[in-house]
Recover the amino acids of this structure.
C-alpha cells in the first residue's frame, strides 16, 4: 500500500514507525533519501520535520519552568530585552502560555515570514534581531498587522513567529541556545544521536535530499530558518520515536526522564477550558480543537501530537487520546494540494495496522 501510494504521488522517500503501548512495534523505510545516488530512505535517515519541532520547543519551555527559570503566566516582557505589546490592546499582557497555545494575538505576516527561510544553509540572521524588528515598535518589519485586533488570550491563530519568540525566551532564561540546551536535556538522555536544529549539526551524508512533486519530481536546496524554534529540528523516525514515547509517558523513556511527571503532564494537558477557551474555538463536536503546550489535537480532538509541513517536508506524529497507539510518518517530498490526500491514505493505512497490532492481530508474512 505504501509503495503504491508513493508511486502514484511521486513521493521519493519516507519512513514510518508504529507505537503500541509506548513501544515501537514496527518501523520501516521506503524509497530514497537521495534518488540520484539510489541511497535508501531508512528509519535512521535524517530530515527536517517542520512544525513537529514546536513540540521540542514546548519540552524545552517546560524544562525551564521545571527549573524555576520561567513561568507560563508571566508577562513575556519580564524576560525580553525589547518590549512586545499588542498595539490594539497595549495594556494587556502576553504570556508564554498564550504563545504556546496560539492565543497570543501575534500573527505571521507571510511576506516577512517567508523571507526568514534561508536556502543553501543555516540562516545568518540572529533570531533575536528578527523578532525585535518584527515585534517591537520602530522595528524594520514592525506593523500593526503583525498582531490581531483582539485581546490576547481571546482568539486562536496559529503563529510560527510566536513559537520563535517562545524559543527565544527559553534561550534568554536558561542562558544558552536552544540547540545546546535541548541536546543536554533531551537528545543526549534519550540517545537521539541523529538529531539537531541546524544543518551544520548534521553530516550531509545522513541528511535526506528534499523534493517537490508536481508532475515531475525535482530536488530542492536544503534550507535553514531564522525562526528555527518553530520548525528547525532535523531528526530521524528512529530518534523521533524515542521523544514521542517520552512525551506520551509524561516525560520518561526507558529510564531517561526529560521532564518531571507534573511538567510532562502539563505539556500534554488540554489548555482550552472554561475561561481559557478562545472565542473562535469549539472544544467538542465537529471542527473541534484543543491545545497543550505546543502540543496539538487533530481529527476533532480524537488524536494528539503534531504535524509538520515545509518545502520538501511532510511529517506526522499522532497518538490516540489514551496514548495506546501512535504513528510517526516522515516524507521528503512536497505534493500539490490535490495530491496531498496520498499522505493521508498512507497514514490511515499505518493507523489501521497500529490498531490491529494493539488488538493482538499479527501482521501478514512479509509486512
Amino acid at each position: 500500500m505504501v509503495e503504491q501510494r508513493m508511486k502514484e504521488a511521486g513521493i521519493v522517500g519516507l519512513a514510518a514507525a508504529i507505537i503500541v503501548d509506548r513501544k515501537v512495534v514496527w518501523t520501516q523505510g521506503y524509497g530514497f533519501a537521495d534518488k540520484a545516488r539510489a541511497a535508501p530512505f531508512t528509519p535512521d535517515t535524517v530530515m527536517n520535520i517542520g512544525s513537529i519541532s514546536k513540540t521540542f520547543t514546548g519540552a524545552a519551555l517546560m524544562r525551564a519552568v521545571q527549573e524555576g527559570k520561567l513561568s507560563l503566566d508571566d508577562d513575556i516582557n519580564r524576560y525580553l530585552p525589547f518590549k512586545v505589546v499588542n498595539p490594539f490592546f497595549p495594556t494587556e499582557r502576553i504570556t508564554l502560555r498564550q504563545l504556546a497555545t496560539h492565543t497570543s494575538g501575534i500573527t505571521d505576516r507571510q511576506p516577512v515570514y517567508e523571507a526568514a527561510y534561508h536556502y543553501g544553509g543555516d540562516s545568518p540572521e540572529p533570531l533575536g534581531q528578527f523578532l525585535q524588528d518584527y515585534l517591537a515598535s520602530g522595528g524594520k518589519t514592525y506593523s500593526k498587522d503583525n498582531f490581531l485586533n483582539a485581546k490576547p488570550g481571546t482568539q486562536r491563530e496559529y503563529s510560527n513567529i510566536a513559537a520563535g519568540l517562545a524559543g527565544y525566551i527559553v534561550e534568554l532564561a536558561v542562558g544558552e541556545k536552544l540547540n545546546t540546551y535541548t541536546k543536554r536535556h533531551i537528545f543526549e538522555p534519550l540517545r537521539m544521536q541523529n538529531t539537531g536544529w541546524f544543518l551544520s549539526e548534521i553530516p550531509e551524508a545522513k541528511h535526506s535530499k528534499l523534493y517537490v512533486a508536481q508532475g515531475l519530481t525535482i530536488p530542492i536546496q536544503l534550507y535553514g530558518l531564522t525562526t528555527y524554534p518553530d520548525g528547525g529540528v532535523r531528526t530521524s523516525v528512529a530518534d523521533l520515536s524515542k521523544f514521542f514515547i517520552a512525551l506520551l509517558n509524561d516525560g520518561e523513556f526507558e529510564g531517561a526522564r526529560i521532564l518531571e511527571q507534573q511538567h510532562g503532564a502539563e505539556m500534554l494537558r488540554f489548555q482550552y477550558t472554561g475561561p481559557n477557551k478562545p472565542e473562535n474555538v469549539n472544544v467538542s463536536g465537529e471542527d473541534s480543537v484543543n491545545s497543550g503546550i505546543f502540543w496539538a489535537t487533530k481529527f476533532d480532538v480524537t488524536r494528539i501530537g503534531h504535524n509538520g509541513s515545509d518545502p520538501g517536508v511532510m511529517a506526522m506524529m499522532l497518538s490516540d487520546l489514551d496514548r495506546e497507539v501512535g504513528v510517526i510518518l516522515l516524507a521528503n517530498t512536497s505534493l500539490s494540494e490535490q495530491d496531498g490526500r496520498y499522505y493521508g491514505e498512507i497514514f490511515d493505512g499505518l493507523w489501521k495496522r497500529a490498531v490491529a497490532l494493539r488488538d493482538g492481530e499479527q501482521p501478514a508474512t512479509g509486512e
Q: What stands out?
A: The CA atoms of residues 224 and 240 lie 19 Å apart. The first strand starts at residue 13 and ends at 20.
